[in-house]
Amino acid sequence: MAFLDRPAEDPSELYDREAEVRQLRFSALNRAVTLVVGFRRVGKTSLIKAATKDMTRIYIDARRFEGMNYITIRDFLNELAKSLSQLLPLSRRLIDFLSRVRGLSIMGFTIEFSESTRDVSIPSIFDALNDWASSEGKHLVMIIDEVQELSKMRGFNLLPIFAYAYDNLRNLSFIFAGSKIGMLYNYLRLNDPNSPLYGRYMELIELKPFTREQSLDFLRRGFSKAGITISEDIINKAVDELDGIVGWLSLFGLTYISNPGPGALDKAVGVASGIVEEEFCNFVRAMGSRRYVLIINALKHGATWSEVKRYLELREGRPISDSEVTKLLRKLVDNGFVMKVNNEYVIVDPILRRISDRVKCRD
Which one is predicted more confidently, 91 or 220? Predict the structure, then answer.
């Protein structure tokens, strides 16, 4: 196991995720839909890519849509075409099956869809993929990372198509992953009796941050693998700052390896701070309200709903309705920035928590 600067591709590159790998491998081949959820940078993409390494798969990274206020079915089809094109070299027969789909054309190993999205039948694409997999004795796994970003789609609803595939296509299964957990559930509408996916079983894999002992061991093993000697004091201080977020622990490990010394942790924290502040401020700009900044300022050490309300009213110098405070906190929870622990709201990411009292989000 070594520190990685990008998602893992093999189970051997993961630390202490054997149980999750076994569960995901079983579920991908035996369940129609698997949900992989967890906060940012806990290793969801690594788990999915590593666990499905030897499977026939289609991988769609919906993070491409994160900075967009809305998307269209054309945006989704473009990403689907790229992913399908990567499958074509595997089988000449796949080309034969897909070439029958209305609105889809194949040139060499490149798939393109008709300019008019009305001419494209996504259920027919899924039918063709399922029929091909069945004819080859394969099982095809379609992975959509950060699936909640599809909630931005205007003018087209994919949920009935996912429900159709769930009910009818036995050789095609889905893995939906998301770090904005509330948004993911809101998009899939699993608790809504009117949702096409209501009442359908989905395997749930929740990836949690490392415990303190796991974090310490992860760093020790990573540095040992790199042949680097590092003091326990520095390792403990790193875990104090970075908690159990594997993405930040790996960033520190790589930073220290390239430039050993006590300044490596400060450098890694500085880089991480810039990343999370930009992510949060992009969210604030998309929401169009600076009240989210005030709430994050107030949550450095956690706060109850009443404390958040009082803080907002004090800063703005005017009353704020209960429903508005609840809505703001719910948005922060749904987007994975905040979670509720007992009666308090706390910031999820240790780096955002560290800088929360000085986040400004200037326009």
Answer: 220
**Residue 363 above 80 pLDDT?**
no
**What is the DSSP secondary-structure string of 200-221?**
---EEEEPPPPPHHHHHHHHHH
Flag whether 181 is in a domain. Answer: yes
Residue 299 belongs to domain with CATH number: 1.10.10.10
Residue 271 exposed, middle or buried by CB count within 10 Å (0-12, 13-18, 19+)? middle
Domain holding 306, by residue range, is 289-363
CA dist list (Å): 341 to 178, 207, 333: 20, 17, 11
Q: Are 183 and 41 contained in the same domain? A: yes
Number of domains in the chain: 2
Give the tens place of pLDDT for each residue, 323-345: 999 999 999 999 999 999 999 99
Last residue of a domain, one of 155, 186, 206: 206
| Residue 90 confidence (pLDDT) | 86
Closest CA to 246 of 279, 208, 300, 280: 208
> Is position 157 within any domain?
yes
pTM score? 0.95
Query: What is the b/e burial string over 142-168, where b = at least 16 CB atoms within 10 angstroms of the residue's CB?
Result: bbbbbbbbbbbbeeeebeebbbebbee
DSSP class of 153? B
Q: In this structure, is residue 200 part of a structural domain? A: yes
Closest alpha carbon to 39 in 295, 216, 260, 246: 246
